[in-house]
Backbone:
């Protein structure tokens, strides 16, 4: 078993034959496709991957990739720290024909016998696991604003739906 510092490169098919487990940490800063999350570059990315074969003897990998990313709350537009947790369960395939032959509920992972770059797999999995809509459980600013009448009025003016409602009432 591998633990601690993650390797940069992996040979997934070899690891599957060895039934290897890889555990360790990296940071968001080391995943270039997550560079847009500028306030999250120091966040730890926890990785735990198990390689092996499934019941059909197909080489596969499963496990967890998790971190936290600052996103924009879709309700109050303030930053919100979202935990992002991916649970990859991938079956290794060599080519398009094997992808087509794979039962639909299985996720194919196109890999040859060559080494792969681990960070690319981690980026892909985390991007797929991003919440579709980021939101605070309770928006701090909304609570704050409703406590102040002047601020509440301001938020009404900024709200495009309120403007729309005004236009509509004018039409009536
Ligand atoms: Zn919010």
Residues:
């Amino acid at each position: 078993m591998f633990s601690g510092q993650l390797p940069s490169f992996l040979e997934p098919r070899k690891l599957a034959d060895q039934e290897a487990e890889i555990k360790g940490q990296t940071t968001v800063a080391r995943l270039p496709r997550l560079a847009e999350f500028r306030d999250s570059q120091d966040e730890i990315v926890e990785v735990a991957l198990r390689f092996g074969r499934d019941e059909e003897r197909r080489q596969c990998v499963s496990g967890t990739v998790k971190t936290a990313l600052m996103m924009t709350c879709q309700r109050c537009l303030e930053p919100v720290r979202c935990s992002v947790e991916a649970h990859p369960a991938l079956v290794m395939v060599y080519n398009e024909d094997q992808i087509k032959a794979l039962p639909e509920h299985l996720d194919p992972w196109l890999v040859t016998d060559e080494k792969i770059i681990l960070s690319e797999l981690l980026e892909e999995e985390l991007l797929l696991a991003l919440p579709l809509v980021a939101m605070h459980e309770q928006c701090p600013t909304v609570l704050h604003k409703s406590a102040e009448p002047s601020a509440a009025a301001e938020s009404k003016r900024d709200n495009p739906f309120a403007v729309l409602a005004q236009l509509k009432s004018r039409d009536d």
The mean pLDDT is 87. The helical segments are 12-17, 96-101, 118-129, 140-147, 149-158, 160-171. The first strand starts at residue 9 and ends at 10.
